[in-house]
Each structure stands twice: as structure tokens, then as C-alpha cells.
Design a protein that fits this description.
Largest sheet: 3 strands, antiparallel
Helix content: 25-40%
Strand order of the largest sheet: 1-2-3
Structural class: alpha+beta
Strand content: 15-25%
Number of helices: 4
Order of helices and strands: HHHEEEH
Radius of gyration: 17 Å
Number of domains: 2
Length: 145
């Protein structure tokens, strides 16, 4: 997706075939198991499965073009990696223009191999950037435990 792209519920005309949109998003969701870099974009696209618009479909075609150009990329798990757990978290305060909820993300590494990741809208509206970051950190802490 283009950096700074903000998708809205009613940002253009409705897409003519919502079933096709749902099928494509469903297939992309399975791809995030080996391509965690796509998680955020696919999370954004999956919010609009009930009533997709033409702009949502255009954003999805950009993701599909990216996937086509990066077929050989994915996760690599090395057997010689150390058994050290590392975790990272981040949030984007009030980034959803429709609900004003923040988006949290985390990734967990075992040695140099990515073993767990998630990108999801927070359940509640955060009042500040710090609160959104603390919520993301709490979610990541639960995952690492």
C-alpha cells in the first residue's frame, strides 16, 4: 500500500463484486502465515469486507502486484539460531478515521527467526499516544509470556 494511504468506509463508489473482494482478502489472510510484512496491509483491507469500495479494491490490487514481484521472499528458520526471545511492539494512535481506535502490532523472535506477530485494532479508544503505546506493550507482554 502507498505510505500514508488512509482507507475509509465510504471513500468511493461501491465495488461491483463484493464476493470477489471477500474471496481475495480471505486468500491473502492465509498468506500472512509466511509473509508477516503483509499483515498490516491485509488487516486494513479486511476491515471493509462487508461493503468494499473501488478504492479498497485498488489498494488490494497494489498488494497483489507487490506479492507477484516478491514471490521468493518469506520466512527463513535457521537451525543454528540461538534460543533468545526478543519482542517488539508499536502502535499508531487513533489511526482509524472511522472509529478513532489505535492499531497495535508486535513481533516475537526466537533467535533470528520470527515466530509470532500480530497487527490489530485496539479494543478501546486510547486518549493519548502514550496510552496506545502502553496497550500495545501489554498485548506484546502477554504474547511473550
Amino acid at each position: 500500500m502507498i505510505k500514508g494511504t488512509s482507507l475509509h468506509q465510504e471513500d468511493s463508489n461501491p465495488f461491483h463484486d463484493p464476493i470477489l473482494y471477500r474471496q481475495l482478502v480471505g486468500r491473502l489472510l492465509y498468506l500472512t502465515d509466511t509473509r508477516p510484512g503483509l499483515s498490516f496491509a491485509i488487516q486494513q483491507l479486511s476491515q471493509f469486507m462487508a461493503s468494499p469500495t473501488i478504492n479498497h479494491y485498488k489498494a488490494m490490487t497494489r498488494v497483489l502486484i507487490y506479492i507477484k514481484g516478491t514471490v521468493g521472499q518469506g520466512l527463513l528458520y535457521l537451525g543454528s539460531s540461538t534460543l533468545q526471545i526478543k519482542g517488539f511492539s508499536d502502535s499508531d494512535w487513533a489511526s482509524c478515521p472511522d472509529t478513532r481506535r489505535s492499531i497495535s502490532a508486535y513481533c516475537m523472535y526466537l533467535g533470528d527467526s520470527l515466530v509470532s506477530w500480530k497487527c490489530k485494532k485496539q479494543n478501546t479508544v486510547s486518549r493519548s499516544f502514550s496510552e496506545a503505546e502502553y496497550r500495545a506493550l501489554a498485548i506484546a507482554s502477554c504474547e511473550i509470556q
